[in-house]
Structure formats: structure tokens, C-alpha cells
Amino acid sequence: MKTSNYTLKLISPEESYKVRHPVLRPGRPFETCIFDGDTLESTFHFGVFLNNELLGICSFFKNNHKNLDYNTQYQLRGMAILNYQQGKGLGKLVLNFAENHIKSLGIKIVWCNAREVATKFYVKNDYSIFGEPFNIEGIGTHYAMFKVLN
Ligand SMILES: CC(C)(COP(=O)(O)OP(=O)(O)OC[C@H]1O[C@@H](n2cnc3c(N)ncnc32)[C@H](O)[C@@H]1OP(=O)(O)O)[C@@H](O)C(=O)NCCC(=O)NCCS
């Protein structure tokens, strides 16, 4: 799909690592950006491109949260935009594209473990916090957030 000059599409796990590693695991071993389930058929990776350059990514994993009472849910992970491209609406663009794809599969509920600094971004994209904040070793405070795909 083309939105103005940006192209949005499904990408491979390997492509997503090109943004995941520098943005989400900077200075850490490359393997730390590989997530369990990345290569499952039920997992989807999405990218936003400008002139064939990948600028931002997100991934959705089929995974139910223990505190959410819905049949099939997807978990958003690896939401990242290259540092110099942040704050220009690209996060919203790739996230909306990904959510529409997940919704087209008949999925109604998506959730994520959001870094504290990113909660405002998710609230702006209609996610709500549930439960108590918690710590992820080496990364910091996180909030569980969910969204009903209408
Ligand atoms: C969080 C992130 C994915 C948002 O993507 P983005 O393209 O920068 O965001 P958008 O331009 O679509 O939306 C901007 C809003 O996001 C929020 N935001 C959160 N972190 C931000 C950041 N580092 N830079 C800019 N905006 C950020 C702000 O509320 C901003 O709205 P405002 O300008 O009115 O304050 C991106 O900034 C990023 O990759 N950050 C570093 C990695 C990260 O924290 N990922 C989330 C892990 S849970």
C-alpha cells in the first residue's frame, strides 16, 4: 500500500531486525533482537519504507494475555522507528496498517507491553493501560495496554 511517498507492506523477520536491533537493543548483541515465534506462520511483520529504505517496523504475534478474557488475541511487539525518523507520524502509519491486517483476520483484541516512554504514543493510537506497571530486566518499567479493533 502506498500512502503519499511511503510504502507499507509485510516484511520478513530478518528485515525487521535491521530496525529492531539499533532502535530497541542498541549496543546489545544482535541475537537479543530475535524474538521467540518470529518465524511462525501466525506471526506478521510490517514495515514502512521511503524510496525502498526501511524506516520503521512492528510485529504481531498470536498470543493471549492471561488477564484478557477474549478468545483470540494478538500481541504487538518490536514497535520501532529509526531514531532520526521519529515523531513524523510513521509509527502511527505502520501501526494502523498492521492493525488493519490483523483485523482482516477476524481478530478483535490486540495488546502490548509498552515501555513507559512509549505509553503516550499508544494512548494516541487508542490503546488503554490495564493492570499494574512492571519491570522488564535491562529495559525498565512497562505497562500492559490493549485495544479493541473496531
Ligand atoms: C514510540 C515510537 C514507535 C513512536 O513512533 P513515532 O513515529 O515516533 O510516533 P508518531 O510520530 O506516530 O507519534 C508521535 C507521538 O508518539 C509519542 N512518542 C513517544 N515516544 C516518542 C519519541 N521517541 N519520539 C517522538 N514521539 C514519541 C508522542 O506522544 C508523540 O506525540 P506528540 O508529538 O504529540 O507528543 C518511536 O518513537 C520509537 O521507535 N521509539 C523508540 C522505541 C520505542 O520506545 N518503542 C516502543 C517500545 S514499547
UniProtKB/TrEMBL annotation:
Question: Where does the record place the N-acetyltransferase domain?
Answer: 1-150
In terms of superkingdom, the source organism counts as Bacteria
Q: What is the lineage of its organism?
A: Bacteria, Pseudomonadati, Bacteroidota, Flavobacteriia, Flavobacteriales
**Protein name as it appears in the record:** N-acetyltransferase domain-containing protein
Q: Which CDD domains does this entry report, sorted A to Z?
A: NAT_SF
Species per Swiss-Prot/TrEMBL record: Neotamlana sedimentorum
Q: Name one GO molecular function term.
A: acyltransferase activity, transferring groups other than amino-acyl groups
Entry-linked SUPFAM superfamilies: Acyl-CoA N-acyltransferases (Nat)
